[in-house]
């Protein structure tokens, strides 16, 4: 049973959801945002993203909530910065553990002063590419802009007539000016 000590010192209210247990392990976290005490111009974020593709919707973008189309619920970048992105993306046919796609990425995205993102370098290591029959599954880096704000996600695609594929991604994004 976790210890529950609540305090509002400094004006912060504390809810009852446990986020750090007595062993200092993080729990119930949907994203992590780290800022260095030494480098005010650098941040590191860790995100979980999801999506499901099928014959009717075979090309979609991974998002933070797993359902909404491209919007501000995708991981954010920053204008006039360089972003180093490490990612692991996994797709699995929902009726069989046999049909999977697994890949890792190292990506560099630069953004202009106006927020326009450019994918400058991509390294992909496909670990497993085993879709059923004549199907083609793939994952593509997707740096995009909404207004003046740059974002990043992956486009997942499953060219299929009957498969439903659950896609899961873990993104580590370091943004530095």
Shape: globular
Uncertain segments are none
**How confident overall, as mean pLDDT?**
86
- N/C terminus separation: 43 Å
Class by alpha and beta content:
mainly beta
Question: How helix-rich are the residues, as a percent range?
Answer: under 10%
The ordered string of helix (H) and strand (E) elements is EEEEEEEEE
Largest sheet: 6 strands, antiparallel
Our Rg estimate from Cα atoms comes to 19 Å
- Counted by DSSP, the helix tally is 0
Q: Please report the total strand number as a whole number.
A: 9
**Reading side by side through the largest sheet, how are the strands ordered?**
1-2-9-4-5-6
What does this structure look like?
- The protein is mainly β.
- It has one domain.
- 0% of the residues lie in helices and 52% in strands.
- The chain is built from no helices and nine strands.
- It has strands at 31-35, 42-53, 59-61, 82-93, 100-111, 117-130, 136-146, 149-159, 165-176.
- It has a six-stranded antiparallel β-sheet with strand order 1-2-9-4-5-6, with no helix packed on it.
- The protein is globular and about 50 Å long.
- The N and C termini lie far apart (43 Å).
Please give the structural blueprint:
Blueprint: E1 31-35, E2 42-53, E3 59-61, E4 82-93, E5 100-111, E6 117-130, E7 136-146, E8 149-159, E9 165-176
Antiparallel strand pairs: 1-2, 2-9, 3-8, 4-5, 4-9, 5-6, 7-8
